[in-house]
């Protein structure tokens, strides 16, 4: 009898732990089922599902990097504008050298350096990341608009377009593969490396982490560098898809959508809490919501209002959970 009681308690504990950590997966399942019921004719088609994932691959890559930054107790509002700057650098290098590999490598290195600078200003200058990245958002966008005269920048290599416009077996677009690879790498970092554990520790209690001998500033900087890597990869996907970059329209609201995906995925805005699996499902939840609103014919001007309500609701639920 005692053994049976322990087993029952154990199963209950396992379920409670699963629900606490991965409740977003259940939410995703419910949304998917409801979408299937109300929009079965269009929503369930293979092409539509593939389109949902492909259309959110770029922002999804940004969201995975954003998860590390938010878990560390910070935020990055500059990623959309940084993506435009990095994408422009990639196209400029490819146009000048006719070498795709050099263009990609230079672009990703520059993106990581940009984020390294962000991290240094935040940590060494003791300035809130919200303020720093808000300023950098305007700097990146303004500089790009200056050099592009408010217009666009176009690539000369047709082969570069294959990076995002080719599909494996004429079924799975490569951007989906890139998203899955980034997720696998970032999940490994968050789960099985010291850096991942330190990022959670800093976001949970920075003072205690510092007193334990960990260089908390360097941990935050590394979280920003991971964000920079995400921006670099996203810039490659975005620029190769259209083989161009527009200073005024490209990357617009990408940072807000990335934050929304992370928050919907259960990552706490106060830091120290959340996991990459739930954040990954948060990407699909927002993608499905966007798709449902489109299929339902909701006015495009109301879509962001609805997403804003969802973000607020997600944060409110996080606060109630703590209470």
Structure description:
The chain has 323 residues and is mainly alpha-helical. The chain has a single domain (29-297, 304-322), classed as ABC transporter involved in vitamin B12 uptake, BtuC (Orthogonal Bundle), CATH 1.10.3470. Helix content is 77%, strand content 3%. It contains 15 helices and four strands. It has helices spanning 2-38, 40-43, 46-55, 57-71, 79-97, 100-124, 129-147, 162-165, 174-192, 194-204, 206-211, 216-242, 254-264, 276-295, 300-322, and strands at residues 152-154, 167-168, 172-173, 244-246. It has a two-stranded antiparallel ribbon. The relative contact order is 0.18. The model is unreliable at 1-8 (pLDDT under 50).
CATH topology: the name is ABC transporter involved in vitamin B12 uptake, BtuC
Low-confidence stretches: 1-8
Helix percentage range: over 70%
Second rung of CATH, namely the architecture: Orthogonal Bundle
Give a quick precis of the structure.
By secondary structure, the chain is mostly helical. The protein is 77% helix and 3% strand. Strands 1-4 form a two-stranded antiparallel sheet. Strands 2-3 form a two-stranded antiparallel ribbon.
Sum up the structure in keywords:
323 residues; mainly alpha; ABC transporter involved in vitamin B12 uptake, BtuC; two-stranded antiparallel ribbon; two-stranded antiparallel sheet; disordered N terminus
What is the strand and helix layout of this fold?
Elements lengths: L1 H37 L1 H4 L2 H10 L1 H15 L7 H19 L2 H25 L4 H19 L4 E3 L7 H4 L1 E2 L3 E2 H19 L1 H11 L1 H6 L4 H27 L1 E3 L7 H11 L11 H20 L4 H23 L1
Helix pairs in contact: 1-14, 4-9, 4-10, 4-12, 4-13, 4-14, 5-6, 5-7, 5-12, 6-7, 6-12, 9-10, 10-12, 13-14
């Amino acid at each position: 009898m005692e053994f049976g009681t322990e087993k029952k308690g154990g199963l209950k504990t396992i379920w409670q732990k699963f629900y606490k950590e991965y409740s977003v997966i259940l939410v995703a399942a419910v949304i998917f089922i409801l979408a299937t019921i109300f929009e079965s004719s269009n929503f369930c088609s293979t092409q539509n599902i593939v389109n949902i994932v492909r259309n959110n691959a770029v922002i999804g890559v940004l969201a995975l990097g954003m998860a590390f930054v938010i878990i560390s107790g910070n935020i990055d509002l500059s990623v959309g504008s940084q993506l435009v700057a990095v994408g422009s650098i990639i196209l400029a290098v490819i146009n000048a050298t006719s070498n795709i590999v050099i263009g990609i490598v230079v672009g990703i290195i520059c993106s990581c350096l940009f984020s390294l600078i962000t991290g240094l200003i935040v940590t060494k200058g003791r300035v809130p990341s919200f303020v720093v990245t808000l300023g950098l958002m305007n700097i990146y966008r303004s500089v790009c608009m200056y050099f592009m005269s408010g217009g666009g920048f176009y690539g000369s290599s047709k082969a570069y377009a294959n990076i995002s416009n080719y599909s494996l077996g004429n079924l799975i677009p490569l951007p989906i593969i890139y998203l899955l690879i980034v997720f696998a790498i970032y999940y490994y970092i968050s789960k099985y490396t010291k850096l991942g554990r330190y990022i959670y520790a800093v976001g949970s209690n920075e003072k205690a982490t510092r007193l334990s001998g960990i260089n908390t500033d360097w941990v935050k900087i590394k979280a920003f560098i991971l964000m920079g890597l995400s921006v670099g990869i996203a810039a490659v996907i975005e620029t190769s898809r259209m083989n161009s970059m527009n200073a005024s329209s490209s990357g617009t609201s990408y940072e807000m959508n990335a934050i929304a995906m992370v928050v919907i995925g259960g990552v706490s805005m106060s830091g120290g809490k959340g996991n990459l699996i739930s954040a990954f499902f948060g990407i699909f939840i927002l993608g499905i919501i966007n798709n449902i609103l489109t299929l339902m014919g909701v006015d495009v001007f109301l879509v962001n209002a609805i997403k804003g309500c969802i973000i607020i609701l997600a944060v409110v639920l996080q606060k109630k959970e703590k209470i």
